Amino acid sequence: MLLENFYSEASSKIHFSRKQASDFAKGIAGDFNPIHDEAAKRFCVPGDLLFALLLNKYGISQKMRFTFSGMVPDGVALHFNDETDGKITIVDDNDKEYLSITRSGATSKDSDLVHHLTCRYVEFSGQTFPHILVPLMAKHRVMINPDRPLVIYESMVIDIDDLNIEQPQLELNNSTLEVDGKRGSVCLTFNLLSNGNIIGKGEKNMVLSGLREYDEIKVQQLIEGYDARKSGAVG
User: Fold this and answer.
1) pTM value?
2) Structural domains of the chain, ranges and CATH numbers in brackets
């Protein structure tokens, strides 16, 4: 993955075109969420792309917590507010915050480790729908709006025991959904492995909006539409 293909930088500011962000979502993350389409009315830059940029710039720390606080549209100039008390933020020219990371413990800037962990996490993240979310929605008898599906990153945690590792892998440990009216909170926990041994753990939290009663037919149509988009038949 050549991260430089998915953003532009000028005067220490980061810019994303719709094509760059959409290409990352579909080509790297395998994420075909409609809000990452070039022509989407409510377009936003994938949170995983911001995550990848932070790791690329600052490396991997043993304990990291990422908090997403805003959806990044195209054309917005972003820059990094460097570390203060262990916290780094991505903000725009008006100091509006979109993503922050707090970190502690040892830090590695080994390019191979950063690249491998980034790729494995982004691949894992891109499998959220339908493989993980649909069984959760079926269990709780709720579903996202099939006409305007909206799944938003909220936060993510990575906790690594030892950074002296090579080619870490990720595997899902558990998934939960808490429903509060039309809002749902999803928590995915995962293990990090190296040579088959668990060397860390992580957690990904998302928000589902516009929940309604589960409808098997509409869910299957949603899945079929997603698969069609992924195969290139649509979009």
Assistant:
1) 0.90
2) 3-231 (3.10.129)
